[in-house]
Amino acid sequence: MIRHALALSLVPGLLLGQNFDTVTVRAQHLRGGVYMLTGSGGNIGLSIGDDAAFLVDDQYAPLTAKIIAAVAGVTSKPIKFLVNTHWHGDHTGGNENLGKTGALLVAHDNVRKRMSVEQFNAVFNRSTPASPPSALPVVTFSDSVTFNINGDALVAFHIPPAHTDGDVIIHFTKADVIHMGDTFFATGYPYIDVASGGNVEGVIGAADRVLAMCGAQTIVIPGHGPAADCPRLRTYRNMVATVRDRVQAEMRKGRTKEQIVAAKLTADLDPTWGKGFINGDVIVDLVYRSLGGK
To answer: How far is 84 from 187, CA to CA, in rounded Å?
Structure first.
């Protein structure tokens, strides 16, 4: 069902023997004191300035030293805060390591809840064990929290279930940069983690909320893929809504999941959006499940 091993490598906690020695962590300057770090796993947001280094997500544990080195390449300030956009291992794998260096771990309430116990994903037939206590967020919140740091107001706010039920989006207010975590995949179709409370309606809603915040120069950091702008996000949002509408229409006709998948509803979209780790069959399956299909 999944086209290649990358799909499984992004399942929380599953690394498939990846050789992290070959991974290079790079810091891309976006605007002001805001950077995007890439390596292996989810994109990392970074704010630097007079106060401290502030991170959004931290990829996999074996990359922590490289991440710290990349941060040190643009600031001499220590990493004092780390916000997780959601609980998946390619975004939280470095929590324990960074927490031990003194970074304060922050996330939505549901991130700590999910990391505290074993999780099972039926789509990928994979279990993720509970994280050690030292990897769990120390500060959690239900709605939003603002960090007044580095001359900016960094607002982390929870959204209704989208990629998971613990997603937060971080707005670097003055820099006009928005980190959407995995509510936005710039690489193709979204991964809707239904087992973690994810829902296609929330993915569309997350895009709508960010689009309402957008200005002409807003930069959007996706969970995966290159930094984007708001027109790119709108195109993504409309694609997801199109898939949702097509699957929903077939469900209303009483079609089974197998019939809906076999109908190849995304054939016209696949050449553009099906090149990531989620193909057309999988996105239809995930959308079907998130709309209540069994």
So the answer is: 20
Instruction: With CA atoms as reference, report the closest residue to 180 among 193, 196, 201, 164.
Output: 164
Count each helix (H run) and each strand (E run) in the chain, helices first: 10, 15
Whose structure tokens read 């239900």? 142
pLDDT tens-digit map of 208-224: 999 999 999 999 999 99
Amino acid, res. 17: G
Give the per-residue pLDDT at 17.
64
Mean pLDDT of 80-103: 97
Return the residue matching tokens 């179709």.
Answer: 189
pTM above 0.85, yes or no: yes
Write the pLDDT tens digit of every residue in 238-252. Answer: 999 999 999 999 999
Q: Mean pLDDT, to the nearest integer, of 25-48?
A: 98
Work out how many domains the chain is built from and give that number: 1
Taking the C-alpha atoms of residue 153 and residue 149, their distance in angstroms, rounded to an integer, is: 6
- Whichever domain contains 61, its CATH number is 3.60.15.10
Residue positions counted in the chain: 294
| Structural domain contains residue 116 | yes
- Compute and round to an integer the Cα radius of gyration of the chain: 18
Tell me how far apart the alpha carbons of residues 106 and 108 are, in angstroms, rounded to a whole number: 7
Per-residue burial over 184-209, b if 16 or more Cβ lie within 10 Å, else e, is bbbbbbbbbbbbbbbbbbbbbbbbeb
Residue 231 lies in a domain: yes
Structural domain contains residue 224: yes
177: containing domain? 5-239
Q: Under DSSP, is residue 194 helix (H, G, I), strand (E, B) or coil?
A: helix
Q: How far apart are CA 51 and CA 5, in angstroms?
A: 41
**Within a domain: 188:** yes
Extract the runs of DSSP E, i.e. beta strands, from the chain.
26-31, 34-38, 44-47, 53-56, 79-83, 104-108, 119-121, 126-128, 139-141, 144-149, 152-158, 168-172, 177-179, 219-221, 228-229
Average pLDDT over residues 78-105: 97
